[in-house]
Amino acid sequence: MSKRIALITCHCFDNIIQQLEHDDSDLEQALSKYGHHVETKVWTDTAVDWSAYDLCVLRTTWDYADNPEKCEKFLHWARSVEELGVILTHNSSILRWNCHKGYLLHFRSRGVNTPDMTVLTAGKSFNVATFLEMQPWRQVIVKPAIGNTANGVMRYDRKDAGGRLQSYVEELLMKGDVILQEYIDAVETCGEYSCIFIAGKFSHGVLKRPVKGDYRVQLEFGGDVEAADIPPRVREAAERCLSALPEFRAELVHARFDLVDPGPPHKPILIEAELIDSDLFLEECDGATERLAHGILGVFPPPCYMIVHNVAKKHNIGTLARSCTAFNVAEMCLVGNDRVNVFGSHGADAHVSMKYFPKLAEVTHPL
Question: Where are the alpha helices (DSSP H) in 84-206?
Answer without folding.
Answer: 92-98, 103-109, 128-132, 164-173, 186-190
